[in-house]
């Protein structure tokens, strides 16, 4: 009896894999059969649908190729252009056999999707941060953006928005890849017509480019995508170079070797307070919508402080950031370095470059303390800032509601500063230097706290009803006019709370320096707003303001339009010099 022939490995594999292959092939075969049957039964409709899909594919590809990267450049004329990349791409695809043509078309569509996403990110960053998206440094900011949305809109709405955004991005990549493949197939089916059309388009592009022909002020010939790729490559290169160059700059410090005994001698015995007011920008004082209310508040508070014996001088500083990234403004002011991105910030935080606040600690004559209601996690920057003690959002005893992103109203934070810090004398006969970060004027400016009696603040529960009766963040975010109006009110609230605290608790020794960290977002300040922020110094002791008489600042809390404008990075050295510090440079 002969044995049965044994099955080969290939036979076994085929038997195992064939059912799975049929499982995947069957729906596709069914779809193809149905499509073929439908097209045969409805030839006119099929032809119209095919033409429509092809036209939409071409429109999508062209729109992606000519899409600008700023909101102010958006307009119909921008999309009525001839992209050089389409002409070159058509010529290359025509020359390729089927398989490499399809692969190149799909890859090109995905790359075009990536460029489109980068253009959209540039638009968003331009509106919110006044700059383009940096592919090296800015990915970490998406976590902050998600937290901001969650604080403003709630977790459910934020998760839905994030999920929707991911779906849209993935769909964009898929649609662009399919669109380019479809157009490449069209070229391959009609090579003669496609070749002539490509040559004509190339000649037209060259002619329009050479003659500078325009429609509505926009050049007809476009190389937008190629330019965008070059810009992104240069941006990456510049970022990598900037890291090394900035490290060298950060090692140079005019006061780096100044002994503590020669730092701020004219402020010994004083109670010095540096306060940043969130988003307090030049637009709040000069924009026709926000300015009337804010200017009136500044004038009223100047008079109230004068009645209490305080005088003020004010000027302008040009911030290193715009719309957000408050920590960049804080560190630029305190370091005397231009810290305009996260990489520079990390470099400085890891260095021993002298901060203005650390200068006070270095004297040995000051206790140093920070009140940071916006800090809700570990804050290792405390060491660089030279702060002996920091109170974060969870250490101020607040039991009231959050006001969107802001963890507590400024008035409450200031009262806690008074009770926990300012009312207590430092040990050993020292003076005190404090750093306060106020947050109530943070976007989305809804709801805004209202002032209550200073003796009624308690644990903050008094704000429950105020928060519930306030505007909903979603309503203000969606309305530009409302955003501008509410932003102005939030600045009025923060400035009033701060100056009322000074009027109520300030002493002969109090020296208050307060300033904005950056302008509000472009939707509020405008697409062409400056980066300037107001800065004021307030004191009872006339000698404190006499020290800065040469600065030519404006009397009062409202800086004049033509008051001096300095870069924010120049403030540290000017302040240290004005109050008697002696430079002893450190050079690397």
TrEMBL record:
<feature type="transmembrane region" description="Helical">
    <location>
        <begin position="45"/>
        <end position="67"/>
    </location>
</feature>
<feature type="transmembrane region" description="Helical">
    <location>
        <begin position="79"/>
        <end position="96"/>
    </location>
</feature>
<keyword id="KW-0812">Transmembrane</keyword>
<dbReference type="InterPro" id="IPR017850">
    <property type="entry name" value="Alkaline_phosphatase_core_sf"/>
</dbReference>
<feature type="transmembrane region" description="Helical">
    <location>
        <begin position="157"/>
        <end position="181"/>
    </location>
</feature>
<keyword id="KW-1133">Transmembrane helix</keyword>
<feature type="transmembrane region" description="Helical">
    <location>
        <begin position="103"/>
        <end position="121"/>
    </location>
</feature>
<keyword id="KW-0472">Membrane</keyword>
<protein>
    <recommendedName>
        <fullName>CDP-alcohol phosphatidyltransferase</fullName>
    </recommendedName>
</protein>
């Amino acid at each position: 009896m002969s044995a049965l022939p044994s099955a080969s490995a290939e036979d076994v594999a085929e038997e195992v894999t064939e059912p799975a292959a049929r499982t995947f092939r069957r729906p596709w075969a069914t779809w193809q059969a149905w499509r073929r049957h439908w097209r045969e039964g409805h030839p006119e409709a099929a032809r119209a649908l095919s033409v429509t899909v092809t036209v939409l594919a071409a429109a999508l590809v062209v729109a992606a190729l000519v899409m600008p990267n700023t909101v102010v450049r958006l307009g119909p004329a921008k999309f009525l252009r001839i992209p050089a990349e389409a002409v070159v791409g058509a010529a290359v695809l025509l020359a390729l056999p089927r398989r490499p043509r399809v692969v190149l078309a799909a890859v090109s569509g995905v790359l075009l999707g990536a460029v489109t996403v980068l253009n959209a990110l540039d638009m968003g960053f331009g509106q919110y941060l006044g700059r383009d998206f940096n592919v090296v440094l800015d990915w970490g900011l998406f976590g902050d953006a998600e937290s901001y949305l969650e604080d403003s809109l709630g977790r459910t709405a934020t998760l839905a928005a994030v999920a929707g955004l991911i779906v849209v991005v993935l769909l964009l990549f898929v649609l662009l890849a399919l669109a380019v493949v479809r157009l490449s197939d069209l070229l391959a089916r009609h090579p003669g017509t496609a070749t002539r059309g490509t040559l004509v388009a190339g000649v037209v592009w060259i002619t329009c480019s050479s003659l500078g022909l325009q429609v509505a002020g926009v050049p007809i010939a476009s190389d937008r995508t190629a330019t965008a790729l070059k810009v992104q490559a240069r941006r990456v290169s510049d970022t990598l170079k900037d890291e090394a160059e900035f490290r060298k700059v950060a090692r140079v410090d005019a006061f780096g070797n100044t002994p503590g005994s020669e730092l701020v001698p004219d402020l010994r015995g004083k109670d010095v307070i540096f306060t940043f007011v969130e988003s307090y920008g030049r637009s709040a004082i000069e924009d026709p919508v926000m300015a009337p209310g804010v200017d009136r508040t500044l004038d009223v508070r100047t008079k109230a402080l004068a009645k209490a014996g305080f005088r003020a001088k004010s000027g302008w500083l040009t911030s290193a950031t715009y719309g957000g990234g408050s920590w960049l403004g804080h560190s630029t002011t305190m370091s005397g370095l231009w810290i305009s991105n996260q990489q520079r910030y990390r470099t400085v935080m890891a260095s021993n470059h002298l901060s203005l606040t650390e200068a006070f600690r270095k004297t040995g004559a000051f206790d140093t303390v920070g009140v940071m209601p916006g800090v809700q996690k570990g804050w290792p920057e405390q060491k660089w800032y030279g702060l002996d003690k920091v109170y974060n959002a969870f250490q101020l005893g607040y039991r009231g509601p959050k006001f969107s992103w802001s963890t507590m109203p400024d008035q409450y934070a200031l009262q806690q500063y008074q009770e926990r810090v300012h009312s207590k004398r430092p040990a050993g006969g020292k003076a005190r230097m404090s750093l306060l970060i106020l947050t109530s004027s943070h976007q989305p400016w809804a709801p805004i706290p209202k002032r209550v009696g200073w003796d009624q603040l308690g644990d903050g529960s008094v704000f429950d009803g105020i928060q519930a009766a306030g505007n909903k963040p979603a309503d203000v975010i969606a309305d530009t006019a409302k955003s501008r109006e509410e932003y102005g009110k939030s600045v009025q609230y923060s400035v009033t709370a701060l100056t009322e605290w000074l009027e109520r608790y300030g002493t002969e020794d109090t020296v208050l320096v307060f300033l904005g960290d950056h302008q509000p977002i472009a939707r509020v300040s405008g697409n062409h707003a400056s980066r300037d922020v107001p800065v004021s110094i307030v004191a009872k002791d006339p000698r404190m303001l006499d020290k800065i008489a040469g600065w030519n600042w404006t009397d009062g809390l409202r800086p004049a339009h033509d008051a001096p404008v300095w870069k924010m990075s120049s403030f540290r050295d000017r302040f240290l010099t004005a109050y008697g510090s002696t430079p002893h440079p450190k050079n690397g």
